[in-house]
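Exam revision sheet. Question 4 asks you to relate a sequence to its structure. Input first:
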Amino acid sequence: MVRILIALGGNAIKQAHESGTKEEQMHNCDVTSRQIAKLMKSDPSLEVVITHGNGPQSGNLALQQDLAKAVIPPQPLDIVGAMTQGQIGYMFQNRLQAAFKAEGIHKPVVCMINQTIVSRDDKEFIGENASKPVGNFMTEEEAMKMKAEKGWIVKHVKPTEVKGWRRVVPCPDPLRNQEAETAAVLVKAGVVVIASGGGGIPVVETEDGLEGVEAVIDKDLAGACLARAVEADIFMILTDVDSAVLNYGKPEAKKLIGEVHLDEMKKYFDEGHFSAGSMGPKVRACMRHVEFTKKRAIIASLDEAIEALEGKKGTHIVP
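Answer key, structure tokens:
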């Protein structure tokens, strides 16, 4: 059996031009689920764990709560994360079941509410180091008001725009996945597991157990953390591009198709080839997986998942 962790990009749930209705999101989950079902049918030996993002959904939910704050108390980010895990997990669970039925695949699917442990001492929690923008864009006046009223850390993330201010929250490094052992037991039993949605619910260890914190965990780093914990043979990030690219956006741009050794990828990463806001976190997560497990990581397009698994498409980072 080959155990694979599939990390889905945001386009698997909501396209950039869409408003995010239930119908739109269910359609996108259906398209994604059919691709996963075809991938599994092409290789019946696969044991599958799936992770996903939740950025647009958590942003919309936070906005809904802010608009209703006069009558209903808004919930903190850890609760918002849990709510979106349920929402997105349901959509994928429902559509995967339908896709499996269509392909004649007889496997149960389960969505897990999933916590990711971080350190309270992470530098992201110190001072104004928080780096992850969340929520709506604001003017400076609006941002300063939120800072004064709610104690938010706010930053001018788009300096050329008047309405370029946003709240920023800590994005701590994931240490371990609290429910990884359960996920491993389930996947070994033949269950397709949906876990670590949105990077997992951020929690810190206390004397009384685990406590949720106001933070957002990078979904790809959290995916690599879970892949390591469940002993995945392959960590595959499926996104809306077909590979990592050197010199992206320049005339000399070059796609990295095929195998790239870890040391070589580290060199490219250090040279700044991968944007911090897009491909950078994906490459970093893949490198971390390969470094810790000595196993393969793949970055590929969702549409080319089968060919990528066969080694014909995508960027394959190897030891």
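Marking note for examiners. The two ends are 21 Å apart (CA to CA).
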